[in-house]
Amino acid sequence: MSIRNLLLKYWGYCMEKEDWYPPLQPALQNVSFEQALWKPADGAANSIWENVQHLLYYKERLLARLKGTSGAFNLSNDETFRIFEASREGWEQAKSRLMDVHAALQSELELLPEEELEVHPQRFMSLITHDAYHTGQIVLLSKLQGVWPATRSFE
Q1: Sequence-separated (6 or more) residues with CB below 8 Å from residue 60
Q2: What residues have CB less than 8 Å from 128, skipping those under 6 apart?
């Protein structure tokens, strides 16, 4: 299997294809505005929405780098979790932007020369593992709110 095909396979697992962990799209699909903002009482975790903002930042940064326009990405890691517009519309836009940038990065991955993928596969692999990590946090936050199914079936 080529590096491209391997990365594309796991890129799909991040967002919509079930593997060892739930993909991000179904994990976010029915998350309401209130659930997206919720945090545990002790405040030891970011909200679902804050995690989405963080994922968005790093995906948009990679897309900009691949297109040669990376100048505007200078936030600290902590700053990437900020919510800019806490509204129902803002939550829907954040989810939509996340899906859009994921698809745009997939298109870039499909077009990158094989030589570049062989030299820099970690650009995508890092985001794949990063998505898996934060998807786990999102699922945990949903479980803590009682909105994630106690058991679920998958293939």
Answers
A1: 73, 97, 101
A2: 7, 10, 11, 13, 14
Which DSSP category does 75 fall into?
-
Say how far apart CA 91 and CA 37 lie, in whole Å.
9
pLDDT given for residue 5 in this prediction: 95
Q: Where are the alpha helices (DSSP H) in 16-121?
A: 24-29, 33-37, 48-67, 88-111, 114-119
**Average pLDDT, consecutive stretches of 10 residues, N- to C-terminus, the chain (155 residues):** 94 92 93 96 91 97 90 92 94 97 97 90 94 96 90 69
> What six digits make up the tokens of 150?
């106690």
pLDDT of residue 82: 96
Cα 150 from Cα 12, distance rounded (Å): 24
CB 5 within 8 A of CB 110: no
